[in-house]
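Sat 14:20. Reprocessing the chain from the morning session after the first attempt stalled halfway. Input below, unchanged.
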Amino acid sequence: MQSYWFGDFTDGRCQPFTGDRGALVSRILSLSTRTDISAIPDWQTAVSCGFCHDRAEYLALLQDACIAAAERSVKEQYSGKDAELLQMVRTLDEIDTVINLLSERATDWYMVRHPAFSRKYRRIPAHTLIRTMQEKSRGALGKVAGEIAQLAETRTALAKEVSARANGVMPNTSALIGGLVAARLMAHAGGLQPLSRLPASAIQVLGARTALFAHIRTRTPSPKHGIIFQHRRVHNAPRGIRGRVARVLSGKLAIAARLDHFRGAADPEFLAKAQEHIDAAGKGGEA
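Finished this time. Tokens:
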């Protein structure tokens, strides 16, 4: 039997599709994954099958079906449990960029008013510097500093919400590296499903794109870690075994991402064993 979106051919006879719009969309999405359809039929085949009367009707029905299929695909894409978390992480990254840019610009502006300040401002924490500018500056500069401080508070609140949401969406991955780092890892992969498909070697250097391409182009040392460097187990490890820790951690993260995607619940037994292996790698033992 040869199946097309408008009907099925069996022994030279065609049985036109007679279902509703929703059933037709399901049929099209199902057929789109098959590999045994070697050619796309023309409108005349659909007419001979009794599905439509002429080319204009065939094109109108095909357009309506394709639009409906696209709408369903988009709806399914945004109904995933990780869809909102993905946008939250990207928003958090954008806020970080805005805060850094505004802080640098406000600091340069403040040094124009207070030239002597340029000698010591680099030793002052960023939040203290912004508060100082807010208290001592009048007019627009003081307002800009106030907006930066308010934006920093919003960023802190959003980061806590991202971490809490990640604990629910990615319980196993979050248990290994923390909710915030897990969410950033997922965002760089493009979602929980893409992350679950990545091998451990890709997860290990995820987020180290610049260093990876520099290694490919100029033969510089290959990166040993990407986003996972933000986790204390990696950045607190001695330099000599940091690569080992990153490798073992990424291997466990690959398994954790698959558990999160396909099961959606924490696996205490896996987490306990994974923590033991990661601890052993951090101490220089066998993982």
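Residues 2-78 form one domain.
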